[in-house]
Structures are given as C-alpha cells and as structure tokens.
C-alpha cells in the first residue's frame, strides 16, 4: 500500500490517500485542508477513487469533502455516532470562524469489527470514541499501519473538550485499540508526524502515567 500525506488548512490537518499498489484502487482518508492537493495527486497519477473514509467528523477532517467529490464521486464512510457532528459541520465552522458548506449525507456506516476492502487491501475498523463519539481507527495488519485520526499523536493525545468528547472513553480506546497493536505498527495521525505504537507506549507523556513506560 502506498500512502501519501496531504496537510493543510488552519488546523494543519493530515489527510491521506492510500493506494493499493497491486490494483491501483485508491481511497481518501479525512479530506481536510489538503483536499485540493489530493485531487491533483489523483489526477496526475490517473487514479480512480473507491471511497472516502472518515475517522471522525470534526470540521478539519471533512471540510475538503466537497473538493474531492467535485473530482470524483465515491461513497462516504462515517460512524453513525458522529452523524450529529457531521450534519453540524457548518455550525462547527462558524464556531471557529471558518466557512464550511453543508455536506452531502454519508453513504455507509462504519461498525466496530468491520473489514473495509479496496483492491487487494483491507482495513480492520475499530470504534474508538473519546475524542469524538463516532471516531474509528483503520488498521491494515498486513502492512503494519494504522490511521488513528485524532485519538493519539506523536507525544500527545486527542482533546476531549469538544462536544461529545470523553476523557475516560479516550483512554479506554487507546488502551484497547492502540496499545494492543504490535509495537512496530506505524501510526498515521490526524495532526503532526507519524509515529509508532512502541514509541508512544514508552514515551508519550499522556500515556506513561497510566500505562508505565521507560520514564515511569
Ligand atoms: Zn478531531
Ligand atoms: Zn483534527
């Protein structure tokens, strides 16, 4: 699987294009401020678009959705517990002083335990609430990678003070669905550089007090 990162917008959000190398099947993950560059990439590589996958519905992860859909129509995947946030995208934008148009309704609902397949590639879907109620993580075990959205970052964790956020739920999600992955798993995050499970396990200052680590 080939992964390209597209960062942009006032929230410096990371969106991704994942290309299943063998077949050229492609998905967009979290089209935010880098959406126009995602479209340029898909066009220059002559790639189609199989689906738009959302880890959650905060405005910085969905505000490029229309830009992508103008390029190619593809089904939008979202967990139903984030539907309220998704439908409120224009109001989320107003709260941050950013214009966000109304979004087209999502086409498919994530469910915990789903397997999403494109080409010969697949992601296991885990429901990981806490940062947002309908947050999911997409894990490709055979590739040793996971798209973790805003659950965990290099040296940090997702904020829980936005509507629907819950600190206990976030820690439960991290404990059960991030720290259970193999240490070498590469984590592609919604903001900042990628990291690994092992690195965060021993050095993330938010996790060490709960789970130990080399500084505990
Ligand atoms: Zn978020
Ligand atoms: Zn974000």
Kindly report the oligomeric state of this protein.
Answer: single chain
Into how many domains do the coordinates divide? Answer: 1
Q: Mean pLDDT, rounded to whole units?
A: 95
Order of helices and strands: EEEHEHHEHHEEEEEEEHEEHH
What's the CATH H-level superfamily name? Ribonuclease Z/Hydroxyacylglutathione hydrolase-like
- Which runs of at least 5 residues are low in confidence (pLDDT < 50)? none
Key structural traits:
216 residues, six-stranded mixed β-sheet, alpha/beta, Metallo-beta-lactamase, Chain A, 8 helices, binds zinc ion, single chain, 14 strands, globular
Explain what the structure shows.
With 216 residues, the chain is α/β, with parallel strands linked by helices. It has one domain: Metallo-beta-lactamase, Chain A, CATH 3.60.15. Helices cover 25% and strands 27% of the residues. A 6-stranded mixed beta sheet has the order 1-2-3-4-5-6, with helices on one face. A 6-stranded mixed beta sheet has the order 7-8-9-10-13-14. A two-stranded antiparallel ribbon has the order 11-12. Helix 1 (35-44) runs parallel beside helix 3. The longest helix is centred in the C-terminal third of the chain and has 11 residues, at 167-177. The chain is globular. It starts with a strand and ends in a 5-residue tail after the last helix.
């Amino acid at each position: 699987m080939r992964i390209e990162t597209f960062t942009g917008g006032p929230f410096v959000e990371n969106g991704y294009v994942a290309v299943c190398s063998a077949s050229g099947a492609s998905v967009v993950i979290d089209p935010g401020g880098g959406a126009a560059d995602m479209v340029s990439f898909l066009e220059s590589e002559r790639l189609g678009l199989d689906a738009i996958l959302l880890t959650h519905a905060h405005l910085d992860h969905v505000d490029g959705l229309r830009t992508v859909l103008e390029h190619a129509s593809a089904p939008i995947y979202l967990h139903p517990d984030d539907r309220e946030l998704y439908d409120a995208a224009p109001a989320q934008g107003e709260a941050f002083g950013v214009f966000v148009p109304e979004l087209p309704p999502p086409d498919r609902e994530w469910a915990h335990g789903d397997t999403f397949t494109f080409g010969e590639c697949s992601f296991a879907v885990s429901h990981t609430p806490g940062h947002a109620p309908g947050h999911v993580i997409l894990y490709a075990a055979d590739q040793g990678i996971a798209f973790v959205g805003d659950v965990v970052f290099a040296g940090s964790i997702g904020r829980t003070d936005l509507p629907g956020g819950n600190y206990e739920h976030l820690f439960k999600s991290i404990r059960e669905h991030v720290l259970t992955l193999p240490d070498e798993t590469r984590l592609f995050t919604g903001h900042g550089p990628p990291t690994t499970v092992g690195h965060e396990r021993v050095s993330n200052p938010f996790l060490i007090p709960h789970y130990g680590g080399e500084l505990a």
